[in-house]
Write a structure and sequence with these properties.
single chain, 164 residues, 8 helices, 72% helix, 0% strand
Length: 164
């Protein structure tokens, strides 16, 4: 089933430039097999790498830049399509606490900033999808990668995990 799904992704993304990007890490013959779904392990690694690169590029659009450290610009960016440096710091602190296992402390500022981050990410995806057809294709690719990750998680846990 996974080979078939990977093959369908390869067919959909055949002329999108994905194979050219994958050829930066893999040889041309390997990429042909990856795009057809035949070489599953390489295909998964390559697609997950491409997925991460797209997500990082997308998040750069909403994360604060270095020149937004100034207090006047931080206040201006709270209404724009970017997170403020304060919101980013509260998300980092909430992540550090969760990673340390301190999930009993609920931080309203961190959860509000995380909600704002999620909304900004969704709004950016929507705006780019409406404005650019190529972006719409790549967001469809990200959705397929999410489906693939859910399938792998369900396969490994027997479909019993709710955390996928």
């Amino acid at each position: 089933m996974m080979m078939s799904f990977l093959g369908s992704i390869g067919t959909l993304m055949s002329s999108s430039g994905l194979s050219n990007a994958l050829e930066l890490c893999y040889g041309p013959n390997a990429v042909l097999h990856m795009m057809s779904g035949k070489h599953v392990s390489h295909a998964l690694r390559g697609h997950f790498l491409a997925n991460a690169a797209i997500r990082v590029t997308l998040m750069k659009r909403i994360l604060p830049t270095d020149d937004e450290e100034c207090p006047t610009k931080t206040n201006e960016s709270s209404n724009s399509g970017r997170l403020t440096a304060t919101e980013l710091n509260s998300i980092k602190c909430a992540y550090d606490r969760a990673f340390a296992g301190c999930t009993d402390q609920i931080d309203d500022v961190g959860s509000d900033a995380l909600r704002r981050f999620t909304v900004l990410l969704q709004d950016t995806e929507e705006k780019l999808s409406v404005e650019f057809r190529t972006a719409k294709l790549w967001f469809l690719y990200l959705l397929q990668m999410h489906t693939l990750k859910l399938f792998i998680c369900a396969e490994r846990t027997g479909g019993t995990s709710l955390s996928c």
